[in-house]
Design brief:
Elements lengths: L9 H12 L15 H6 L3 E2 L2 E2 L20 H9 L4 H12 L2 E2 L5 E2 L3 H7 L1
Antiparallel strand pairs: 1-2, 3-4
Length: 118
């Protein structure tokens, strides 16, 4: 067989085109059931032909999921500090992380403090 087969049978395609072309008349609205609150809540919302995403918008700086091995006592202490412990841990790690300078050299945290003491 050399020809491509359509995924949809031709007669079915014609019926779909006829349905798409149908304009609903006012008297036909009586035949349509009313939408329930559950159906409306689950409906996709489109504005200007584009799907409107629900929920929290994506962050411009997405975080990376990694696997990090930490001593159980350290993890227990962070978790015991209450809600938001992961955010606080991220901020603490960010403060302790080495920074690169304009020259491309990596500065170790606390290096400036050591030089000023000397």
């Amino acid at each position: 067989m050399t020809g491509k087969k359509s995924a949809i049978a031709p007669d079915f395609q014609k019926r779909l085109e006829r349905i798409d072309a149908h304009v609903i008349r006012p008297e036909e609205y009586e035949d349509a059931p009313e939408l329930t609150d559950e159906q409306l809540a689950a409906a996709d919302i489109h504005e200007g032909g584009k799907l409107v995403r629900r929920g929290r918008p994506p962050s411009p700086t997405r975080k990376k999921a990694i696997k990090l091995r930490i001593d159980p006592s350290v993890l227990a202490a962070w978790r015991a500090s209450g809600s938001g412990w992961q955010t606080r841990m991220t901020k603490t790690l960010a403060r302790a992380a080495p920074r690169s300078s304009a020259s491309g050299r990596v500065k170790k945290p606390g290096a400036a403090a050591k030089k000023s003491r000397a």
